[in-house]
Amino acid sequence: MIVKLSVKGLHFSYGSAEILRDVNLDIRDGQVVSIVGPNGSGKSTLIKCIDRILNPSKGEVIVDRQKVSGMKQMELARMIAYVPQNSLRVFPNTVFDVVLMGRRPHLGWREEARDEQKVWEVLGLLGIEDLALSLFTELSGGQQQKVLIARALAQETGVILLDEPTSNLDVWHQIDVMEILRTLVRSQDLTAIIAIHDLNTAARYSDTIIMMKGGKIFAAGRPEDVLTSENLAAVYGIHARVRNYDDIPHVIPLKQIPRKRGRV
Predict the structure, then answer these.
(1) 261 in a domain, yes or no?
(2) Which residues form the ABC transporter domain (predicted)?
(3) CA gap 142, 135 in Å, rounded
């Protein structure tokens, strides 16, 4: 097994509130890995700690046998790309210029023909080359998400982190984005790590699912091994049936498990 990324004993806290607690995992090269769990379980925090957007209080993230903590920012950006849940920054730029931002870790004093060629290449891969001169702010949510993925691909990294990439999209665009991601992982030999809420989408597109609860990894493995009725009861507090369709587990929620009085 070729390990692309490892997390060793990771802890993170916001003030006195501990969000991640001794997280350990090894992620193989060339996989789609989904991180699932209830709100507040630490999914997005883990993604941000891997990319050093947040600095863990303890532990290490290792990519290609190199510690992330010892890397300069541009060196890290040549190894890991990050796609946020929403574009918090408003890009008053064309789509071409937004994607070109992904070339920054590779640029010298000025952009070169190779950088422009790479932008056109990834726009073509995602089928959005016709949007190149459109303003990013005038695009639909699905189009914006594809542009942000294109920007990450332009970085030419081995790992792409995605924080809830389908949360604000309709069903058509959810499927479109996930199909694109899975195809790119296979064709470009990438590792995609996705924080996601939708369990059935995770089951359909993931090689590995990591289920989190209370800042720890509760279960990890193949979708059919992680998405069990027992795990869903323990982590989400629901009774659910899990049925296989075309060898893919499908979660059918039935009802909540009553919580003890006083629990929130």
Answers:
(1) no
(2) 5-239
(3) 14
Residue 238 falls inside a structural domain: no
pTM: 0.91
- What are the pLDDT tens digits along the chain (264 aa)? 466 899 999 999 988 889 999 999 999 989 999 999 999 999 999 999 999 999 999 999 999 889 999 899 989 999 999 998 766 566 678 999 999 999 888 765 455 788 889 999 999 988 899 999 999 989 988 888 899 999 999 999 999 999 998 887 889 988 988 998 999 899 888 999 999 999 999 999 999 999 999 999 999 999 999 999 999 999 999 999 999 998 899 999 999 998 775 554
Claim to verify: residue 173 and residue 136 sit in the same structural domain: no
In this structure, are 172 and 150 located in the same domain?
A: no
Closest of 70, 80, 12 to residue 46, by C-alpha: 12
State the residue range of the domain holding 171: 1-79+157-225
In a domain, 234, yes or no: no
